[in-house]
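Dear support,

I submitted the protein below through the web form. The confirmation email said the job was done, but the results page showed an empty box. After a refresh the structure appeared. I'm attaching both so you can tell me whether what I see now is the final result or a partial one.
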Amino acid sequence: MKYLVFSALLAIVSASACVHGSDRSGGAEESTAEGTDYHVLMAEIALQRHEYYVAATEYHRALKGNDDPELAARAGRIVYEYGTYEQAVEAVEHWVDLVPDSLEARRDLVLLYLQQGAVRRALPQLEYLHGVVEASSDDGYAALLPVLMEARDEEAAFGAMRRLAKAHPDDPTASYALAYMSLISGDVALALSESDRAMEARPDWTEATVLHARCLIADGRTEEGLALLQGRPEFRDDPRMRLEYALLLLAADRPEEARLELELLLAEYPRLPGALRTLGFLEFQQGNMDLAGRYFVELIGTGMFVADSLFYLGSIAELDGDLDSAVNFYSQINSGDNLVPARVRLSLILYRLGKTEEALGSLEQVAVTDPASSVDLAAARGELLMRMDRFDEALEIYTRELQRYPGDEGLLYSRAFLYDRMGRTDDSIEELEALLRENPDDPVALNALGYTLADRTDRYEEAYGYIKRALDLDPDNPAIVDSMGWVEYRLGDDAAAIEYLRRAWSMSRDPEIAAHLGEVLWNGGDREGAEEIWFEALAENPDSLVLQRVIDRLMQ
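What the results page shows now:
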């Protein structure tokens, strides 16, 4: 059976069939070949029309009672990318059952299981992937890192790697992979012990030595980490090793030494992409924008790290106020780690330029063509829609994404904030209370619930309790310090409120903090002080709706 639908057939069926999820059999799922063909046809029509959720639903229906491997693969891909979580799990499990040697299907199943913390279910799939890799290379469990690092639930991915390493204590590649993930998660002690184990087992494994050096520097043992790399026999003759050494110097907050090492590298190896990229980033961080720009332009000429170069060139143009050039650079990025941040920046610029529909379109395009990034783009799309007071559309985005990623904290927080903006305070509080039940000691959830109660209700004492707990857990978080100032203001202690809010403003130039501090000062009679804070913040954040609303409300 062919699953590509010709345009003529599409036109005929489109004229007589509805593709919005209707079931011609009155609700019963067909298991016949005719029923399968019908749902496949509906799915392909939906894809032609860019109705991706409908396509996923129809392909999910087409799988009922069908054991065609080709259909399983096609449907598995579409449903994984665009369907609900439950649909995706069923479709990909079916795909693995019928095409057990499909590495893509196994990978997708790992990510689905880890998304909901189902570590035990993910382990057999990870072991299968490892077995394939082991037969063709010596990377072993380290080859699983790209899959594990893609998991949305970092704790589940870390837990899976812990179990794999425990099951294979004599495999240095498992120790390496666990050390790598431990370092990222902040467990430096475990990273040190596991990287040392990997290095001792395979002394000639350069990656293990580099990783152990990074762990030493993270542990504050800078000289020991640097000496470890310098002691490698290939150190001076291997540009990759010297580049790693420069990166370690940067990690140790020794930028001048890193710059010297990188410049020496370029003198010996002109146009070395890694050195150009690192120098460009270093100069950008140091505020030397002209020099950074030259490095990134030269890097594009090498054909390597082009997306990174475009992103930083766009950032430099944006900082210079050259919005047209920034739009040009950002819009050329179509893949890579900088795709989402570039599209978010692009959409904000387009919004500032009054091109609201184009701003939304730039985000929607990526969400469709790169479904894995759709959840990361949902918050940006929702925020833009909220700025346009198109609340129902924003809610639809969050709800649809939560069908694909149930329990995703970022989406739930965004929806709670949206409920608040819509005036649905009870729904917002209910969402935040549910998040807090899942993570009772999460300072973010405590603060969000406390602030909402302080700002939207008269439950000030209850709000104070939540915010106080959050502040005890994370005393240097400016958002929490700001909330404490706000709840003190609500409780009538203006002096304490101003103290907290000034402290928060000194920690972060967030316009919402400025709005709060200005309001407390204004209502306390210090109108000159309030105006000074507000207009200072507006100069840095001219598009801040929070600031504009409080100024309009109090100065009218």
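Response: this is the final, complete result; the empty box was a page-load delay. The chain has a mean pLDDT of 90.
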